Amino acid sequence: MTTELTAVAENLCELRDVSHVFTLPNGRPLRVLANINLAIQPREILALLGPSGCGKSTLVRILAGLIRPTAGQVLYHNQELQGLNPATAIVFQTFALYPWLTARENVEIVLRAAGLSSDEVQARTERVLHLVGLASFEESYPRELSGGMKQRVGIARALALEPEILLMDEPFSQVDALTAQSLRAELLDIWSATERNPSSILLVSHDIQEVVYLADRIVILSANPGRIRTILPNQLPRPRDYRSPAFIVMVEQLHDIIAGHELPDEPRPPTAPAAQRLEPLPEATPSEILGLLEYLDARGGSEDVFRIAIDTRRPFDHLLRVVAAAELLGFVDTPKRLVVLNPLGRRFLNAPTSDRKAIWREQLLRIELFRLVYTALQQQPDRSLDQDFVLETIILHLPEENYQRLFDTFLHWARFGELLSYDEVRGTLKLV
Q1: pLDDT tens by residue, 349-389
Q2: 2, 107, 248, 349: which has the fewest C-beta neighbours closer than 10 Å?
Q3: Residue 85 region, left (φ>0) first, then alpha (ψ -120 to 50), else beta?
């Protein structure tokens, strides 16, 4: 009992049975997080890894106190959090700099808002700008800075507040690969070399190599709603080498965990009778699906999903959506980590354009959402329907999906197969 109480007391911040529900514009609830239990410990880097829609950014905002969870508790030093979390500062994905202020002024403004004296503002600003390598750029405006330099300003601004927990929401996704690699190394140097805060870092990422390089613990989330699937300790010694065998093994272990869930060998058990069950459409464009099939065809018909991600330079979670879309359409099979172009996929690729459209339409009508809408259109005297019919169908049958994104994917696929046309001004669908 004493050990458990001590462990709880040592946590900087903790989520207990946290769930969150957003209200959609039509008034319907959208559950984005379910029963999250997670603690941030002193002197650690904790990474959140998962597909789009798993609530990673929502978790960050709940930890910062920007959002109050629908259910559950947020604890700060074992006391329930009220309002904003004084222990945190956020580094945003999109830099979020004031364009009319210089690099120095972008840092100073948050310190003044925190009520610090002029001397303290100046001292902290100079320290953090020097720390992130911006001492020579302090009078530059954001428009004069590269993406990497802008993100350095964002990091400096957060560090200036000396937070116990630095929250980083995909901080390197808007910069090129080499800059991102450099920023990761610099961040690790700053965190490990100083006795000042931040004590810990919470990193949101979709980049598996990034989290293996930085994190001490890796939290893998599933989506719709966001749940913790597993928490993986990362005991690789620092400094870590992207090319070392142990690093590569860890990366592949994470790929296996994620791919095994997103592309299961066995179909998931149905939650409704087949005649009523609608499947969500993976967010992928027809051109991306076609590109995947052509990639597989050029490599003899099959490839490891990890290798495809490397070759195509796609984020792994996005590639999995493209593969899942191709599988839903019946063009590929996914045994273990392989993506295999099947006979239908080959026939589709080798067909002339008109036959491709026919095959695509035929496969669409094997998917319940398309079949349902197609049947409804056929029953209308003018063969047209208001878009609200599709939106309401999605919301009714798939309440935890992002209905607008799913509708956009539905339209992309239907129009590519010339199944129907869409009048954006009137918001109507019509059979071709």
Answers
A1: 999 888 999 999 999 999 999 999 999 999 998 999 999 88
A2: 2
A3: beta
**Rounded-to-integer distance, Cα 156 and Cα 128, Å:** 5
For residue 251, how many other CB atoms are within 10 A of its CB? 18
Q: What are phi and psi of 367, to 5 degrees?
A: -100, 130
User: For the chain, what percentages of helix, strand and coil (3-state, to nearest 5) are there?
Assistant: 45, 20, 35
> Where is 362: in which H helix or E strand?
helix 353-364
3-state secondary structure of 282: coil
Contact 286, 356 (CB under 8 A): no
Place of tokens 């099947």: 342
Largest interatomic CA distance in the chain? 76
For the question of whether the overall pTM of this predicted structure is more than 0.85, the answer is: no
Angle at Cα 52 formed by Cα 206 and Cα 325, nearest 5°?
Answer: 105
Helix, strand or coil, per DSSP, at residue 203: strand
Alpha-carbon gap, residue 274 to 366, rounded angstroms: 12
CA distance 164 to 201: 8
- Give the pair of three-digit tokens for residue 147: 């993406």
3-class SS of residue 277: coil
- Residue whose C-alpha is closest to residue 58's, from 293, 223, 269: 223
The amino acid occupying position 370 is F
Is the pLDDT score of 53 beyond 80? no
For residue 136, what is the DSSP state?
Answer: G
| Structure confidence by residue, pLDDT tens digits, 146-188 | 888 998 999 999 999 999 999 999 888 877 778 888 889 888 9
Taking the C-alpha atoms of residue 407 and residue 417, their distance in angstroms, rounded to an integer, is 15
Name the burial class of residue 218, with classes exposed (0-12), middle (13-18) and buried (19+) by CB atoms within 10 angstroms of its CB.
buried
CA 430 to chain centre: 34
Contact 285, 322 (CB under 8 A): no
Distance CA 59, CA 65 (A): 10
Task: Tokens 């459209």: give the residue.
Answer: 357
CA distance linking residue 88 with residue 99, whole number of Å = 24
